[in-house]
Design brief:
This protein is of the alpha/beta class. The protein has one domain (8-147): Rossmann fold (3-Layer(aba) Sandwich). Helix content is 42%, strand content 15%. The chain has helices at residues 17-26, 48-56, 77-94, 112-129, 133-140, and strands at 8-13, 35-40, 61-66, 102-106. The protein has a four-stranded parallel sheet with strand order 2-1-3-4, sandwiched between helices. The two termini are 25 Å apart. Residues 143-148 have low confidence and may be disordered.
Length: 151
């Protein structure tokens, strides 16, 4: 477990979070390389199936990154995404997976430092939690073919 390096999937809205990630890179702000970014048109376009599939495909942690509250380019997409994340967190609780493995974060396009901070905090949190129980179960059954090709 001391060599454990978590796989984090970040669903980033095109207008704010993805641009913030780009800004973090432009500003040479360090954030963990284990964060895999998936650009979506709006955080509300992320479905519960996408979140669960990310875990099924090997992610140890997942977060949805959207626009700041009240500043969504699609009116209230980020509020819908936040409600979805809450509902999926309840589902994770029910199936025995720590809800902390899934998060919603909000930022503006100019907040490269916030993206780097969110990626770092999520990585540290997941390192403390350890590998995803789904990953452990699949590896325990020596069925690692499912652990490739995250989304």
């Amino acid at each position: 477990m001391e060599n454990f390096e978590p796989v984090i999937v970040a669903f980033c809205c095109h207008y704010c979070a993805y641009t913030a990630a780009d800004m973090a890179g432009s500003q040479r702000l360090a954030y963990p390389a284990n964060v895999k970014i998936i650009r979506v048109p709006c955080s509300s376009k992320v479905d519960a199936l996408h979140l669960v599939k990310a875990f099924e495909k090997g992610a140890d942690g997942v977060y949805v990154a959207g626009c700041l509250e009240g500043d969504c380019h699609f009116k209230n997409g980020n509020a819908r995404a936040a409600r979805l994340v809450e509902n999926v967190q309840k589902y994770l609780d029910e199936i025995g997976i720590e809800r902390e493995r899934l998060e919603m974060v909000m930022m503006s396009a100019g907040m490269g430092y916030r993206f780097a901070q969110a990626a770092t905090e999520m990585t540290e949190k997941i390192r403390k939690l350890g590998p995803s129980p789904i990953h452990v179960a699949l590896v325990g059954k020596e069925n690692t073919s499912q652990l490739t090709g995250i989304i």
